[in-house]
Amino acid sequence: MLANDPLKRVLYIDLSTKRFWVTERPELFIQNIGGTGVASALLEEECPPEIEPADPKNPIIFAVGPANGLFPIASKTVSMFLSPHNKLLGESHAGGRSALALRLAGYGAVVIRGKSDFPVYLVIDSQGVKFRDARGLWGLTVSETGRFIREREGGSGLRSILRIGPAGEAGCTYACVVTETYRHFGRLGLGAAFGYKKLKAIVIVGKRALPVNDRKLYKETYDEILKRLQEAPSLRKYHDIGTAVNVLPLNKLGALPTRNLRSTRFEEAEKISGEYFAENLLGRRLACAHCPMACIHLAALRTPYEDEPYFYKTTFISYDYEPIYANGSMLGIGSAEGILRLLDAIDNLGLDAMSTGVVQAWATEAFERGLVSEKDTLGLKPRFGDVETYLKMLPLLAQKANEFYAALASGVDYASQKYGGQDFALAFGGNEMPGYHTGYGAHVTHLTGSRHSHLDSAGYSYDQKLSPEEITPESLAQKLFEEEVYRQILSSAVCCFFGRSVYDYETLAQCFRLSDFDYSVEDLKLLGEKILKRKYFFKKKRGFALKKLKIPKRILETVSPHGKLEEAFLRKALSAYERLLEDSGT
C-alpha cells in the first residue's frame, strides 16, 4: 500500500478503561478492501457468537474505503455491530462528512469496545481520542446535542458529529445515529448500541492529505467518472426532485404500501409526492462530502409561534422516499406538512424513520381490531391519517412509557408476538418493511438480503423490468445473488449506491489500483462472494436460517403489480438463494 496511507490503520477504543491505541493492519485492507469488507472481518474477530446486543463485548465498528475522499459520490461510512433489533448482523451506511473526516483523521476503521460507567462522547482526531463527560447531555434531543458539541468543540478542519437522542439512550431497538443533522445511520439499531455503551456522540476531525500513486492517471480517472455521473439520467432526477420522485410512479404502478399495506394506491399521493415537496416546500439542497449530485432535499417548514401573529419559526427537515412512504401513505397521511412534523420529531428523538412509521401503522390496525386498548395506548386513539395522535405517540414510544410502548420500541415482530396481529405485522428477518410492494423481487430481497433491506439486492428494480412470465424462483435468486455480491464491493469502496450505473467492476478495479490495490474484475467478484458469505455465516452462527423466516401474510393478501404473490414461489426462491450462499465456491 502507499506510504502514509491512513486506510491501513485501525483505531481501537475501550470505553470501559478510557484507553485507545492504533494498530497498522495493511493485510486486513488488502484482503478486504475497506468499508463492508473490512467491517465484516472486524465484526467476525470482535463479536463472540454467544453474546447479546447489550453485552459490552458487542463492538461498534466504523470503516471507510479506498474511494472515500478521492472519487466523486464515494461518500459513505459503513458501521457494523450485533443488531439490537433482530440480534443478527447490524449494518448501516451513512453519508455526510463522516467518511472523509475519518480518513483525513488518519484511520481506515474504528473499533469501539466495552461500556462506559457514565455517559461520554468521543473526539477522534489524528492525535487519537479524547473522552468527554456527557452526563449533562444525556436526555437531550439530537439537535440539542449537536448544538452543544459544536459550541464546545469548535476547531478547524473537516468535522463530523455523530449522535443519538432519547430513543437510543432508552434502548429502542431501531434507534438510529444522526450525523450532520440530515444524514443517518438508520436501520437495525446502531443508536441503541450507542445507548447500551453510554456513548452519546462521536466527533471526528480530519486534517490530513490523501496520497495517490499516479497523479496524472488519478486526474484522468476522476474527470472521466465525474463526467459519466453528470451525464447519467438516473442521477439527474435525484438532484432535481430527490428520491421522493418515486412516490407517484409507485402509486401509479399499484406498489405504494398504504395504510399498513391494506392497499397499494394512495388517493392523496399527489399531496405527498416529490413534485409537491419541490414546488411548495423545498428550502435548499445539500450534498454529502465529495458528491456532485446534491440529492439531499430540505423542506422549509414554517410554524407559527403561540400568541405571536405573523411570526414564524422555520425548520429545515430532510425528506426522502422511504421516510415519506413510512410516515405518509403507510399511515394514511396525505399532508406533506404533517409528514414533516412527524419526521422532525422522529429525527430529534433519534428513531429510524422507516421502522417507526411501520410500527405505528401496525399499532393503528391493532387498535382498530381491539388487540390493544386505550389503557395500553395511555388514552390515545390512533387512526390512519391522524397526525396529532401519532405525534403524541412518538415520545412515549422512544421513552418506553409503559409495557405497550416498550413493545413497540422493539419493533413490529416483537409487538405482534406479544399482542397478536402477526398476520398484518410487516417485518422481514425482524426488520420493518421498506416501501416497495412491486412483486416477488422486492420481497425476496427483503427476506434474503444480509440486512433485510431493499438496498441489499434491489429486487424492486427487477420487478419493474421483467414480466411475471420471465421470472422463476431460481432465475430471480441468481439475479439477486449476483447483485448483492456486486454491492459488497461497492460498499467496500465505499461508494453511494446511486453511483452503481457508473462504478462497475472495471471502474472500481481502476480506482483501487490508484490506491495500490491490485484486483482484477474476477478477483472482485470472488471477493464480493467471500464478504457476502462471511456475513451470512455470521448470522447462521446465531440461529439464522432462510427456511425458518416468517413471510408476512399481508404481502400475500394485497395484490401487487405482478398479481397476488404465492408463498410457494417465495419459499422456492429462498431455497435457491440459500444454495447459492452455501455453494458459492468461496
TrEMBL record:
GO MF, any single term: 4 iron, 4 sulfur cluster binding
UniProt keyword terms in alphabetical order: 4Fe-4S, Iron, Iron-sulfur, Metal-binding, Oxidoreductase
Name of the protein in its database record: Tungsten-containing aldehyde:ferredoxin oxidoreductase
One Pfam family recorded for the sequence: AFOR_C
Family to which the UniProt record says this protein belongs: Belongs to the AOR/FOR family.
EC class: oxidoreductase
InterPro entries registered for this protein in UniProt: Ald_Fedxn_OxRdtase_dom2 (IPR013984), Ald_Fedxn_OxRdtase_dom3 (IPR013985), Ald_Fedxn_OxRdtase_N (IPR013983), Ald_Fedxn_OxRdtase_N_sf (IPR036503), OxRdtase_Ald_Fedxn_C (IPR001203), Tungsten_al_ferr_oxy-like_C (IPR036021), W-dependent_AOR (IPR051919)
Span of domain Aldehyde ferredoxin oxidoreductase N-terminal: 9-208
PANTHER family listed in its UniProt record: ALDEHYDE FERREDOXIN OXIDOREDUCTASE
Organism of this sequence: Thermosulfurimonas dismutans
EC number: 1.2.7.5
SUPFAM superfamilies: Aldehyde ferredoxin oxidoreductase, C-terminal domains, Aldehyde ferredoxin oxidoreductase, N-terminal domain
Cofactor: [4Fe-4S] cluster; tungstopterin
Domain of life: Bacteria
